[in-house]
Amino acid sequence: MDGLRMFFLPCEMNGYRSRIFAGNFLIFFFFAAVFLKFAFAIFLYSFSNSQFYADITKTSLVELTNQERLKNNLPPLTQNPLLDSAAYMKAMDMVKNGYFNHDSPSGTKPWYWFDRSGYNYKYAGENLAIGFVESNEVSDAWMASPTHKANIVNAKYRDIGIAVLKANFQGNPVTLVVQMFGSKQGKAAAVQSGEVGTNIAAKPGVTDKTAGNETGKEVLGASTSATNKDSALFKFVAFFAEKYFGLVQMLVYGSIALVVLLLVANFVFKADSNHVDLLGKAAAFVLLMAVFSLIDQNLVVALVPHNLTVY
To answer: What is the pLDDT of residues 34-85, one digit of tens each?
Structure first.
């Protein structure tokens, strides 16, 4: 008990200079809080490739897309496992062949992957993004682009598929996002031609099958493995991703409250001019932590260097 008293409160045993203020504890604590807060963005960037985190990201992107559709009085899209597979195959093909585009260097169109997955579509569209670390960033970037937004709020689509893949792309570790939209072909519907790119495209009369046949089969098989959402590891990572930043903020607020209380205690127990340096250090800590608490999650993510691209 005497040790705690000497650390937190001014008393005769510590010369009326509580150790929490007299030493470098507050300085170390401040830098530790900075590290913990920015470690959130490092966590997002480092684990965005895991099957656990990627699943969370896919879910968030579908939810954000449907929120935008609801704002435009459109029905929500249904996540389709065949489109998920098509998106994953496209992402793997981009990584394997080192390109970031709707068409591959060999001329393979986005719609090829729809056919490879077995999704018989009448209308199809594709959005791409690379270098992001948070779902909101991707959604905001797509909505800021007229062509990407046109896909998201297109009334002809009924299904959606998402792939989130982290890989070494052209020598740099990045997170690659493929978003595919579709409506299934009706039995009596005529096959039409359409535009290429992020805009809506009706099914071409001739499907391009010039690349990735064997690789596509392998990737499709691998993509069917399911995440065990009941596992302890999944629950821990999901909790960590959702709650970590809030817990760090609570730590920051708690440290401010504690130091303010200790400042009051120092005035009560020993408030004289001999301890102005300690009181000044504590007041500076409170001010710095109060300013630091204003740095929210979005700003933290934005401050971490990463290349942002949509296509």
So the answer is: 888 877 666 655 554 444 454 557 889 999 999 999 999 999 999 999 999 9
Q: Rounded CA gap, 136 and 142, in Å?
A: 10
Which residues neighbour 177 within 8 Å (Cβ) at sequence distance 6 or greater?
Answer: 61, 91, 127, 128, 129, 130, 132, 138, 162, 163, 164, 165
**Three-state secondary structure along 200-231?**
CEECCCCCCCCCCHHHHHHHHHHCCCCCCCCC
Angle at the Cα of 279 from the Cα atoms of 273 and 284, rounded to 5 degrees: 140
Where in 55-169 does DSSP place strands (E)? 78-79, 121-130, 159-169
pTM of the model: 0.54
**Single-letter amino acid, residue 185:** Q
Please identify which residue in the block is written with the tokens 């060999």. Answer: 106
Give the HSE-up count for residue 179: Cα atoms under 13 Å, Cβ half-sphere.
30
**Separation CA 169–CA 117 (nearest Å):** 24
